[in-house]
Specification:
Shape: globular
Structural class: mainly beta
Helix content: 10-25%
Number of helices: 6
Strand content: 35-45%
Number of strands: 28
Radius of gyration: 21 Å
CATH architecture: 7 Propeller
C-alpha cells in the first residue's frame, strides 16, 4: 500500500510538472522533440529587398545566449540567391532540417541546421511543388508529422484565387498526397493537429492575386476584399477528412491549440474583424467557434496577424500589424480574455514567439513585401523582450535594414546542446545527399 501511495504521489508530481511546462516557439508541432532551457540562436526567415545586401531571401541566424560574444548579433546568413516572398518555415520531426517556403513562386528551401547550428546550410531546393501537388500554390505552414511534412497552402495555379489544399511530403522530399479544401470552405492558411483528439484544424486567408497586391490598393478594391476566407475546418486527422466547417468571419489566421490535456480548445484571431475566437470541443464531441474578445476597432484595420499561447494556457500573445502593438491577454478563463498588457513595439509588428522557459518574447516586423509600410514607417527588426508575467523589458534588437538583411518574418529557435545529444544515421538522410548532388 505504501508503495502504491508513493507511485500515486510521483504521478501527481509529473502531472503538476506538465501543467507548468515551459513554452515552445510559434508553430511548434507536438511531434517535434522539445528543447528546454536557454536558446542559443534565433533563425529568422527573411524576405529580400531590392538594393539591400544581395537583395535575396535568406535564413538569418541571431545569437541569443546572454554572455556570448554573438548575443544580439548576426551570427550567419544563408542566401537563396533570389526573392520568392519568404514567409513561413518549419522543422522536420527530428529538428534536423528546416523547410522554408516562398509564397510568390512556391519554391521550398531545405536547410540543414543540425550539422552546424550556428551556420545552417541550404542543402536542397524543391521547385516542383506546384507540379507535384496538382496545381497548389503558396506553401505557407510547414507542420512536422512523423516522417512527413504537412504543408498548408494559400492558392492555386489555375486562377491565383483562394481555392487551395493541404500537401504532404516525406522527410526525404518525396511528394505523398494533396488533400483539397472542402466545398464552401476552399480557402486555406494555417494547419494545426491535436493528436490526442485525432483532430486537425485549418484556417483561411486569401489567394495569390490578393496577397501579392499592394495593401493600400487591395483595401481600396471592394471586389478584391470580398475574396477572403471566413471559415475554419475541423478534420478527422488520421483519415484526412473534413467533418465540420465553422463560420469564422474575417479571415481567421494563426491557430493555437491549448497545450494542457484537460483543455480541448484552440484560439484563433481574425485579421479583418479583429476578434479573438475560441474553437472549443462540445460535450457531444463536435466543435463550436465563438468570438470571445475584441482586439481593436476593425474600422481602423489594426490587422491582428500572429498569436502565441503560453504552455500553461494562461497567456495569449497577439500582434497587430498596422499599429505595431503587442497585446497580452490573460486567457485562464478562455471564454473571457482579459487584456493584461498593451505595448507598442514598433511602427509595424508581425510574428511573436515565446521561448521554451516562458521568460522571453521575440517579435519581428514584416508581414508581406507588398503589405509592409513604406519609408520611415517600414522599419524592419527583430526585438527581444524579457517577460515576467507582468511587464515587458527590452533585451536587444537587430535592425535588419541597417544590417542589409531584408524583411524578417517567422522565427524558430536553436540550441547547441540539443543537437550534440542527438544520434543521427552515419549515412545521413537521403534529402541531404540529394541536396549535395544538386549543388
Amino acid at each position: 500500500m505504501a508503495r502504491r501511495w508513493v507511485a500515486f504521489l510521483v504521478m501527481l508530481a509529473v502531472v503538476a510538472g506538465a501543467r507548468i511546462a515551459p513554452a515552445d516557439e510559434t508553430c511548434m508541432s507536438p511531434y517535434l522533440p522539445k528543447i528546454t532551457g536557454q536558446e542559443d540562436y534565433v533563425y529568422v526567415w527573411t524576405v529580400g529587398v531590392d538594393g539591400v545586401g544581395d537583395g535575396a531571401d535568406k535564413l538569418v541566424t541571431i545569437g541569443a545566449r546572454p554572455g556570448s560574444p554573438t548575443y544580439g548579433k548576426v551570427v550567419s546568413s544563408t542566401s537563396t540567391g533570389g526573392r520568392h516572398e519568404a514567409h513561413h518555415a518549419g522543422f522536420t520531426d527530428d529538428r534536423r532540417y528546416l523547410w522554408a517556403g516562398g509564397l510568390d513562386d512556391s519554391q521550398i528551401y531545405v536547410f540543414d541546421v543540425a550539422s552546424d547550428p550556428a551556420n545552417p546550410k541550404l542543402v536542397r531546393t524543391i521547385d516542383s511543388f506546384v507540379a507535384d501537388s496538382g496545381g497548389v500554390v503558396g506553401p505557407h505552414t510547414f507542420f512536422a508529422l512523423p516522417g512527413r511534412m504537412l504543408i498548408a497552402a494559400l492558392s492555386n495555379s489555375k486562377d491565383d484565387g483562394g481555392r487551395t489544399a493541404l500537401v504532404e511530403y516525406n522527410n526525404d522530399g518525396k511528394f505523398i498526397e494533396t488533400v483539397w479544401m472542402p466545398e464552401n470552405a476552399e480557402y486555406g492558411y494555417d494547419v494545426r493537429v491535436q493528436p490526442r483528439l485525432n483532430r486537425m484544424l485549418t484556417s483561411s486567408f486569401t489567394g495569390r492575386t490578393n496577397y501579392m497586391t499592394d495593401l493600400g490598393t487591395l483595401i481600396g478594391d471592394a471586389e478584391a476584399m470580398k475574396h477572403f476566407g471566413n471559415t475554419m475546418v475541423v478534420w478527422d486527422f488520421h483519415a484526412r477528412k473534413p467533418i465540420q466547417t465553422l463560420q469564422v468571419p474575417g479571415a481567421p489566421l494563426e491557430i493555437r491549440w491549448a497545450l494542457q490535456p484537460r483543455h480541448n480548445y484552440a484560439f484563433a484571431t481574425t485579421a479583418l474583424t479583429s476578434k479573438i475566437w475560441l474553437i472549443a470541443q462540445q460535450p457531444d464531441g463536435t466543435f463550436a467557434a465563438t468570438a470571445v474578445g475584441d482586439i481593436g476597432d476593425p474600422k481602423k484595420t489594426p490587422l491582428p496577424v500572429d498569436i502565441s499561447l503560453s504552455a500553461d494556457d494562461r497567456w495569449l500573445f497577439v500582434t497587430t500589424f498596422m499599429d505595431g502593438t503587442l497585446h497580452i491577454y490573460d486567457v485562464s478563463d478562455p471564454k473571457h480574455p482579459k487584456e493584461a498588457v498593451k505595448e507598442k513595439v514598433g511602427k509595424q509588428a508581425n510574428m511573436v514567439s515565446e521561448t521554451w522557459d516562458g521568460e522571453r518574447l521575440y517579435v519581428t516586423s514584416s508581414l508581406l513585401a507588398n503589405w509592409d509600410k513604406k519609408g520611415d514607417d517600414g522599419e524592419q527588426f527583430l526585438k527581444a523582450y524579457r517577460w515576467d508575467g507582468k511587464h515587458l523589458t527590452p533585451l536587444f534588437q537587430v535592425d535588419f535594414l541597417d544590417a542589409k538583411l531584408g524583411r524578417p518574418h517567422i522565427m524558430h529557435f536553436g540550441q547547441e546542446a540539443f543537437y550534440k545529444n542527438q544520434i543521427y544515421s552515419a549515412a545521413g538522410p537521403r534529402i541531404a545527399r540529394a541536396g549535395a548532388a544538386e549543388q
